[in-house]
Amino acid sequence: MTWVWIGLGMIALFAAGFGLSRMISSKTSAAAEPTPLPCITITPTANAALPAPAKVKTNVYNSTATKGLARKTAAQLKAQGFVIATVANDPNGQIAKGVGEIRHGTAGLAGAQLLALYLPGAKLVDDGRDGATVDVAVGPEFGAVLTKAQVDAEKASPEPTTTGAGCPGATPQGATGASAAVTASP
């Protein structure tokens, strides 16, 4: 009978040791796992709140040294249904970088967002103006205004945007700009 008690005692001791080792190893592995950094993913949705192009009054400015760029861009925007007001050289006297700038105030934000769909890569700039008129200052990397069909296709398949320190490929966005006299015709 003594051997039975010794055997049961050894089994109990082994079980206790095994259980204790499992508890210690699970605490160690949980502490060793790094905590992921915060990452925010923004998925654009259909822009149901945006106005129709016919409701957006737009000034088109040539902000480059390329002659006739404002006229060409204004004609393309008009073909997509936008209301064109002024076509001229950029009154700010700037040569915009990239595709260009879409300048607006609070009342023109929705119109500016709509224009941004037709001019991908153009930078939205809130210049604090009154009224809903939106300015398009065309830059040197401007190619062409997208068509309604292209914009509709883009709205139907939006791509998510990642932001935050923990997101792969997330970079801070900075404003850039340069000023110089514009001598080109609109």
Shape: rod-shaped
> Low-confidence parts, pLDDT < 50 over ≥5 residues?
170-185
How would you state the average pLDDT, rounded?
79
How many whole angstroms does the radius of gyration measure? 30 Å
Strand order of the largest sheet: 3-2-6-4-5
Number of helices: 4
Q: Main β-sheet: number of strands, strand sense, barrel status?
A: 5 strands, mixed
Helix content: 25-40%
Number of strands: 7
Calculate the terminal CA-CA distance, rounded to whole Å.
Answer: 108 Å
Instruction: Assess the beta-strand content as a share of residues.
Output: 15-25%
Computed structural class: alpha/beta
Please provide the ordered H/E string of secondary-structure elements: HEEHEEHEEHE
Structure description:
By secondary structure, the protein is α/β, with parallel strands linked by helices. It has a domain at 59-163. Helices cover 33% and strands 18% of the residues. The protein contains 4 helices and 7 strands. The chain has helices spanning 2-32, 69-79, 109-118, 148-156, and strands at residues 40-42, 57-62, 83-89, 100-104, 123-126, 134-138, 161-163. The protein has a 5-stranded mixed sheet, with helices on one face. It has a two-stranded antiparallel ribbon with strand order 1-7. Helix 2 links the parallel strand 2 and strand 3 (83-89). The longest helix is centred in the first third of the chain and has 31 residues, at 2-32. The model is unreliable at 170-185 (pLDDT under 50).
